[in-house]
C-alpha cells in the first residue's frame, strides 16, 4: 500500500515535470524576429544589379518622380529615404515640392505633364494630402503604367483579379517577408486587421490570392476592422496562422490573443510621445514583449515591414521602366 502510494506520487511528479518541461520549452522559445532592415538591404542590392544590367547597353537609368504637397515632417523623412534608396540602386529621381494650398487643378496639371513625359518612368504623390485634394482622385490621375505606388484603381483591380500589375508596395513587402523567411501560407488561416484601401485591403488581396496564377498566398483570409467587436477579433486571432496588422492602434494585439507558433507581421507605425521627456517612440499594433513569447515569427516596429516597402518601390520603378520599354 505504502509502496503503491509512493509509486503514484513518483508517477505524478514525473507527469508534472514532463508537462512543465513541455510548457517551459514552448514558452522559452521566443519568436524568430523578421529582420526587414536586413532584407531591404539585400533587395536593394538586387535592384542595383538589375539597374546596372538595364543600363549596360547605354540605355538610361529609370527615372522616378516624387511629389510632395506641403511640409508634413514624416513625409519629408519618407521622401528623403526614397531618394536615398533610388541613389543607392542607380535610379534617377526628381522631387517636386508643392505648396500646402495647391489646387487640385494645379496638381492634376503637373501629373498630366509627368504622364506625358517619356523620360519619366515612375510617379508617386506622397500621402497624406491636405483636405482640398481628394486622395482617390489624385492617385487615379497617375497613369497606371507609371503608378509605382500601385494605388491606381486599374492596378488594384488587376491585383484583385490575379493579373500582372504594379502592386501596392506594402502588400509586396509583406509577401516578400513571408517568402524569404520561408513561412508557409498555403491553405492556412490569415487575419488582417485594418481595411484601408492602400494598405489593409491590398494585403488581404495578396493573402487571399491564387498562388498558381500570380503571387497570391492561398490563405483563408478574414479582414477585421474598427467595427469588428473585440470578442470577434479575438476569436479570429486565436485561430489565425498568419496575423497582419495595419490598424494604427497600439497594443491592439497581445500574446494571449495569438495561436502559439503563428506568424505576426506588424505593418503599423504609431508614434507615442512620452509626456515627461517629450521623446517619441515608434510602436506597431502589437504588444511586442508578450507577442514574441507566443508567436513563432514576428516583425518588429521599427525595422520590419517599413524599410521593405521602400525597396519594393525601387522594384516597381524598375518593373514599370521595363514594361514601358517593351511597349515602345
Ligand atoms: N505615396 C505614398 N504615401 C505613403 C505611403 C506609400 O507607400 N506611398 N506609405 C506611408 C509612408 N511610407 C512611405 O511612403 C513609409 C512609412 C514608413 C517607412 C519606414 O521605413 N518606417 C520605419 C520607421 C521610420 C519612421 O517612421 O521614422 C520602420 O518601420 O522601420 C517607410 C515608408 C504613408 N504615405
Ligand atoms: Mg514561443
UniProtKB/TrEMBL annotation:
Hydrolase in keyword set: yes
MF (Gene Ontology): methenyltetrahydrofolate cyclohydrolase activity; methylenetetrahydrofolate dehydrogenase (NAD+) activity; methylenetetrahydrofolate dehydrogenase (NADP+) activity
UniProt keywords, alphabetically: Hydrolase, Multifunctional enzyme, One-carbon metabolism, Oxidoreductase
Gene Ontology biological process terms from the UniProt entry: tetrahydrofolate interconversion
GO cellular component: mitochondrion
Catalytic activity, as annotated: (6R)-5,10-methenyltetrahydrofolate + H2O = (6R)-10-formyltetrahydrofolate + H(+)
Protein's UniProt name: methenyltetrahydrofolate cyclohydrolase
Species, as recorded: Hirondellea gigas
Taxonomic lineage of the native organism: Eukaryota, Metazoa, Ecdysozoa, Arthropoda, Crustacea
Amino acid at each position: 500500500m505504502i509502496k503503491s502510494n509512493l509509486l503514484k506520487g513518483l508517477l505524478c511528479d514525473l507527469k508534472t515535470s514532463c508537462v512543465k518541461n513541455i510548457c517551459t520549452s514552448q514558452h522559452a522559445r521566443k519568436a524568430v524576429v523578421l529582420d526587414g532592415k536586413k532584407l531591404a538591404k539585400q533587395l536593394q542590392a538586387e535592384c542595383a544589379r538589375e539597374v546596372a544590367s538595364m543600363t549596360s547597353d547605354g540605355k538610361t537609368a529609370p527615372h522616378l518622380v516624387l511629389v510632395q504637397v506641403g511640409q508634413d515632417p514624416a513625409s519629408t523623412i519618407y521622401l528623403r529615404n526614397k531618394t536615398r534608396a533610388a541613389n543607392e540602386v542607380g535610379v534617377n529621381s526628381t522631387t517636386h515640392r508643392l505648396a500646402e494650398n495647391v489646387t487640385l487643378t494645379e496638381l492634376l496639371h503637373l501629373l498630366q505633364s509627368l504622364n506625358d513625359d517619356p523620360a519619366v518612368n515612375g510617379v508617386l504623390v506622397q500621402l497624406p494630402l491636405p483636405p482640398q485634394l481628394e486622395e482617390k482622385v489624385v492617385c487615379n490621375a497617375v497613369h497606371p503604367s507609371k503608378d509605382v505606388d500601385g494605388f491606381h484603381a486599374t492596378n488594384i483591380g488587376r491585383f484583385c483579379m490575379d493579373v500582372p500589375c504594379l502592386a501596392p508596395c506594402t502588400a509586396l513587402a509583406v509577401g516578400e517577408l513571408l517568402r524569404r523567411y520561408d513561412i508557409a501560407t498555403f491553405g492556412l488561416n490569415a487575419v488582417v486587421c485594418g481595411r484601408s484601401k492602400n494598405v489593409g485591403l491590398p494585403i488581404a488581396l495578396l493573402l487571399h490570392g491564387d498562388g498558381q496564377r500570380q503571387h497570391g498566398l492561398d490563405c483563408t483570409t478574414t479582414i477585421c476592422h474598427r467595427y469588428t467587436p473585440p470578442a470577434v477579433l479575438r476569436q479570429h486571432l486565436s485561430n489565425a496562422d498568419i496575423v497582419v496588422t495595419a490598424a494604427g492602434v497600439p497594443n491592439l494585439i497581445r500574446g494571449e490573443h495569438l495561436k502559439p507558433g503563428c506568424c505576426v507581421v506588424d505593418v503599423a507605425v504609431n508614434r507615442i510621445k512620452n509626456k515627461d521627456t517629450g521623446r517619441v517612440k515608434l510602436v506597431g499594433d502589437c504588444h511586442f514583449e508578450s507577442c514574441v513569447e507566443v508567436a513563432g515569427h514576428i516583425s518588429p516596429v521599427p525595422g520590419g515591414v517599413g524599410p521593405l516597402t521602400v525597396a519594393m518601390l525601387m522594384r516597381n520603378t524598375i518593373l514599370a521602366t521595363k514594361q514601358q520599354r517593351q511597349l515602345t
